[in-house]
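pinned: reference chain
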Amino acid sequence: MKISYLKDRTGETIDLNKLIFDNSIELNSSTDLDALIEIIGDSKYVLLGEASHGTHEYYTWRTEISKKLIQKKGFSFIAVEGDWPDCYRINRYIKNYIDSGKSAVDVLHKFNRWPTWMWANWEIVALTEWLKNHNSSLPKSRKTGFYGLDVYSLWESFDTIIKYLDKEDPKTKQTAKNALKCFEPYSEGEGQAYASATLMIPSICEEAVIDLLTQVRKNMISYNTDPEAVMSAEQNAHVIVNAERYYRAMVKPGPESWNIRDHHMVDTLNRLIKFHGSESKAIIWEHNTHIGDARATDMVREGTVNVGQLLNEQHKDDGVFSVGFGSFKGTVIAGREWGDVMRIMNLPDAIPDSWEFLLHQLDSKNRIIFMNEEMKKQIGKKEFGHRAIGVVYHPQYEYLGNYVPSLMPHRYDAFVYIDETSALHPLHMKPDGHQMPETFPFGM
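pinned: its structure tokens
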């Protein structure tokens, strides 16, 4: 074990190893999570991160934490960094809506937008079936939900809302079709063609999508379907409005497009909380770069905000608890460029002096670190590089830009460290023997 020391503001020497040992526990089984659940307490918002979108252990440990929060703390729904229309199909399936799918595999096979592996994977199949079973004996008002927070599903949200309005509001359906027609010349490239066009004409379709949202919200009270379907229709209209704003901003330098996206995700959370009632509580699954407070990173210097920051600013008194995740080495699913085939890539050892390197040097054991007041006082002003991997990844160059300078005890309330992680199991790749692979590291 390498001994690590640090000078505090008074010049006193801090033994980092002892500090972390004293404020952490080993993580070997799901029982060890009970200490984390106790510290989370009555928090209304629990944010569970990940250092990549393609790591098995991040999904399985988040699943185990979520199960405990649902069973012991009565959490109302899981909201994820995914598209609303796709995730709403999971929500319908786990709540046993009519014609909602025969199995989780059936539902998740329909996730076909790149990167498909983020949600179409065997780990989410296991969570989905658990949620369905958990909900099976509960009244409708107490069933746990599953929703997508992201802003990318412009075309899917148009398709969904037009089908809905065809039955409920034919007049507003025409408004939706007119708005869709505005985008049709720019249908290539997931919004990039529209984004490029707005360089010449800054707001080609803005008025059309705002008109659609206005009409949907005005007429919602008259829709005769169940309340959740009405809520979903409104949400698809919000997605369309904010997707237009996002794609219009993405061609400009600066943080505007990122900020539009994270504001949309928080606004969606606020609508979900309102829909589920004042006593409802939310579990949020997103990348560390969204759930760890941006004010504790170099993001703040660029004017970038994120979900963690916004929730702390808006709902701190309700309890906002963020859990970061990371590892030292292993394998990961990613692509070499946007739209590339999914690949299992080697995850290099974390670079020296990074947060992950420090935890590996400690004793190479999995552990939960609690970012309490002692941690904030002792190392709250020390910046550590903290690894962040996206869906596009080049392991050989990660030291050039995959580490976010972070004040770790201020970025998270707790941190789950897995010394060696493995790649996610994508659903669209046939697993050996056509069987679900093990979805928890110790057979649970």
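why pinned: The chain has two domains: 5-148+281-434, 152-261+273-280. The CA atoms of residues 29 and 442 lie 7 Å apart.
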